Amino acid sequence: MRMVDIIAKKRDGETLTNEEIKWFVEGYSRGEIPDYQASAFAMAIYFKGMTQQEAATLTYEIAASGDQLNLTEIEGIKVDKHSTGGVGDKTTLVLGPLVAALGVPVAKMSGRGLGHTGGTIDKLEAFNGFRTELEREEFIRLVNENKIALAGQSGNLTPADKKLYSLRDVTATVDSIPLIASSVMSKKIAAGADAIVLDVKAGSGAFMDKVEDARKLAKAMVDIGNSLGRQTMAVISDMNQPLGRLVGNALEVKEAIDTLKGEGPEDLHELCLTLGSHMVVLGGKADTVHEARTMLEQVIQNGKALEKMKTFIEAQGGDPASVERPETLVTASSFIEVKADTEGFVHRMDAALIGRAAMVLGAGRATKEDKIDHAVGVELVKKIGDSVKHGETLAVLHTNKDENEAVKDMINRAYEIEEKPASAPSLIYDTIE
Ligand code: URA
Question: Where are the transmembrane segments (predicted)?
Answer without folding.
Answer: none
